[in-house]
Amino acid sequence: MTRTEPWLPEDTIAAYRRDGVCRLRGLFDRRWLDTLAVGIERDLADPGPYVKVYTPEGGPGLYFGDLVMWRRIAEFGDFALNSPAAAIAGQLMGADRVTFYHDHLLVKEPGTPERTPWHHDLPYFPIDGDQVCGLWLTLDLVDRATCVEFAAGSHRWGRRFAPRYFADGGDYYDDSGFDTVPDIDANRADYQVLSWDLEPGDCIAFHALTLHGSPGNLRRPRRRAYVTRWVGDNVVYAERPGLISPDIRGHDLAPGDPLGGEMFPLVWTAPGVDV
């Protein structure tokens, strides 16, 4: 269960903790890209119960999303349990133990105008804690015109923003106690917005409170992003005032319980830490 490679440089870990996001180059080799490519085509052909198509009927391109696929599609399960992803997330978070939370597929085919609205992830999830990390892995060449963007340092603002529907950018629910997401696109000079040119096998690691959004994909090639989400030692199950995403059921967790069991497996422990 303990994986010691790849080890990340200290400046990479420092950038993640300072900015809430960092780029990681080439940590996933062709074996993992080929594995994920097979899984993605399987899911596109036969999606699961969490599937969302954000492109209006008859609209150009395709913006496709699906969640919690790893137990249904063997290639995604292999990646979750056996790839370097858990070790990478553990080092970035400074966690002794890393548990797999869920996976998320986002495909934007060429000619897709739909944007992903600015949001951060944690208010969607029925969990609380500081050690929640996402790894956004690309299988395709991505330039900054189509890359997901991040508001650097927003994970340290001490604010929670209301979850938003990807289809229209509206809030999930009213009277949540969460703030409204600021209009970053209209005030970009007020923020340090980070994005990158990426090659297949590169990934972006980001904190679950880091605000992010992405443009459409009006160019070629397609943009396939496979996102895995990981939690560390201080994360517990929590209640939310309204809808959650993904709405994973059947785990029997109560508020305050650490994640675990078959639905949320422990995948990595730091060297010298007992399981």
Textual characterization of the structure:
With 275 residues, the chain is α+β, with helices and mostly antiparallel strands. The protein has a single domain (10-269), classed as Jelly Rolls (Sandwich). 16% of the residues lie in helices and 23% in strands. It has four helices and 14 strands. Strands 1, 2, 3, 4, 7, 10, 12 and 14 form an eight-stranded antiparallel sheet that branches. A four-stranded antiparallel sheet has the order 5-11-8-9, with no helix packed on it. Helix 2 (30-45) runs antiparallel to helix 3. It is globular, with a radius of gyration of 18 Å. The N and C termini lie close together (9 Å). The mean pLDDT is 95.
Structure summary:
With 275 residues, the protein is an alpha+beta fold.
Keywords:
16% helix; four-stranded antiparallel beta sheet; globular; 4 helices; single chain; Jelly Rolls; 275 residues; alpha+beta; eight-stranded antiparallel beta sheet
- The number of distinct structural domains comes to 1
Task: Give the number of DSSP strands.
Answer: 14
Q: Roughly what is the average pLDDT, rounded to an integer?
A: 95
The string of secondary-structure elements, in order, is HEHEEHHEEEEEEEEEEE
SSE layout and pairing:
Elements: H1 10-19, E1 21-24, H2 30-45, E2 52-53, E3 63-67, H3 74-82, H4 85-93, E4 97-108, E5 116-119, E6 127-128, E7 132-138, E8 149-151, E9 193-194, E10 203-207, E11 212-214, E12 223-231, E13 236-237, E14 266-269
Antiparallel strand pairs: 1-10, 2-3, 3-4, 4-12, 4-14, 5-11, 6-13, 7-10, 7-12, 8-9, 8-11
